């Protein structure tokens, strides 16, 4: 059959007229979480997989029902049911591929250019989900009327594409439907290979079962073989997915970083190396500001923004002495952690001291914390250091209450 005839008689063309513009519009509205890092850009495409798979599954079900109703397989027995399926579902598969590329192009053009290349594994895994829905649509469509089969796949595809990500009790389901890496990735992360493999394996389970069912539909043992293949592959997918729970990322290879300098040592990922001179200079300036009040930054610092500006570098270096996690005492059942109040004030003071502009800080911290930080900055350097040391004890020890009042540090030569 000619390609023009397939497109004219099948659902792929008119589905594309609706699906592609919607995907382009939706992707343009949801690019704020992507950063100039290819795994992050590539993972944004997984957000729309639910829409694409639902539409392609419905189109496949419609085409399958139309073929079944028209008795096409009986008119061409030499080709077989599987051969007819491949021919007629080809345009739907191409539609799925175009629907994947369109939002990816939108996200890519909306994010500043970056080094490297797209992450093909994420795109391939997402496409495997679409192919699985096309296969399932074929299976459903040959057993239901056109409208009912298409509606079933449309509803099922949408629910399966988005519902698992909202379930807190079964978080590993997102690794089966292709949403496992949708929140990937920071610069120090990469997509979880285990998550990607779980998605591919489950998609392969569906495709294999449908292929065997179509190829062996006249054999008595065909359903048993297809069910066995589906069960085996699904078990493998579950073994991969269940231990992951919510986690869809893994640590990036730290050997890719380049670390220079000392006190602090500045570590940059490949995407940041074009700014190495500026970042190192800004880090030294911030370190000098901290040294004036007796504060030493962490031994090693890195930055989450692919293109950090002066304020970002100053903030990271200045607040690096503050621990990222609360102490073990705060994790005990019923425990209180007075260090929270101290941590907010210390963050604001360190940021201002390190050179972060007040208007930039005001976007992230409450006004009262900034006002307190400015009052502490008005104290002599020794008094500021004493305030810092005293309240850092509250950050590390739940039994120590903070003493944030500037008046406590204006006596005895700036010591409390």
UniProtKB/TrEMBL annotation:
Keyword list, A-Z: Membrane, Transmembrane, Transmembrane helix
Classification via InterPro entries: DUF7224
Lineage, opening ranks: Bacteria, Bacillati, Actinomycetota, Actinomycetes, Kitasatosporales
Name this protein carries in UniProt: DUF7224 domain-containing protein
Signal sequence interval, chain numbering: none
Domain of life: Bacteria
Residue ranges annotated for the DUF7224 domain, each copy included: 266-398
Bilayer-spanning residue ranges: 12-29, 41-62, 82-107, 119-140, 147-173, 193-212, 224-244
């Amino acid at each position: 059959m000619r390609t023009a005839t397939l497109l004219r008689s099948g659902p792929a063309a008119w589905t594309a007229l609706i699906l592609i513009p919607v995907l382009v519009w939706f992707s343009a509205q949801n690019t704020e979480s992507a950063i100039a890092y290819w795994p992050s850009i590539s993972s944004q495409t997984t957000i729309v997989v639910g829409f694409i798979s639902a539409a392609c599954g419905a189109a496949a079900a419609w085409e399958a029902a139309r073929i079944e109703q028209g008795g096409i397989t009986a008119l061409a027995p030499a080709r077989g049911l599987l051969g007819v399926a491949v021919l007629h579902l080809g345009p739907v598969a191409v539609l799925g591929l175009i629907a994947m590329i369109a939002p990816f192009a939108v996200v890519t053009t909306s994010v500043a250019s970056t080094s490297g290349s797209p992450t093909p594994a994420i795109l391939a895994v997402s496409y495997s989900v679409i192919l699985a829905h096309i296969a399932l649509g074929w299976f459903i469509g040959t057993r239901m009327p056109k409208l009912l089969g298409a509606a079933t796949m449309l509803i099922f595809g949408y629910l399966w594409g988005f519902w698992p990500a909202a379930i807190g009790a079964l978080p590993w389901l997102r690794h089966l439907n292709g949403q496992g890496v949708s929140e990937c990735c920071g610069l120090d992360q990469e997509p979880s290979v285990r998550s990607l493999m779980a998605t591919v394996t489950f998609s392969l389970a569906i495709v294999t079962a449908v292929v065997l069912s179509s190829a062996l539909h006249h054999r008595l043992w065909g359903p048993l073989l297809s069910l066995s293949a589906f069960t085996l592959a699904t078990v493998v997918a579950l073994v991969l997915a269940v231990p992951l729970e919510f986690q869809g990322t893994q640590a990036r290879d730290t050997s890719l970083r380049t670390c220079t300098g000392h006190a602090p040592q500045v570590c940059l990922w490949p995407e940041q190396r074009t700014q190495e001179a500026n970042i190192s200079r800004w880090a030294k300036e911030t370190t000098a500001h901290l040294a004036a009040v007796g504060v030493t930054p962490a031994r090693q610092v890195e930055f989450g923004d692919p293109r950090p500006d002066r304020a970002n570098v100053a903030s990271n270096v200045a607040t690096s002495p503050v621990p990222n996690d609360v102490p073990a005492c705060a994790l005990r059942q019923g425990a209180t952690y007075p260090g929270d109040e101290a941590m907010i004030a210390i963050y604001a003071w360190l940021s201002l001291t390190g050179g972060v502009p007040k208007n930039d800080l005001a976007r992230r911290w409450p006004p009262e914390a900034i006002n307190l930080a400015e009052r502490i900055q008005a104290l002599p350097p020794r008094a500021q250091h004493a305030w810092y040391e005293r309240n850092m004890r509250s950050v590390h020890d739940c039994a120590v209450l903070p003493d944030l009042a500037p008046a406590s540090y204006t006596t005895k030569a700036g010591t409390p």
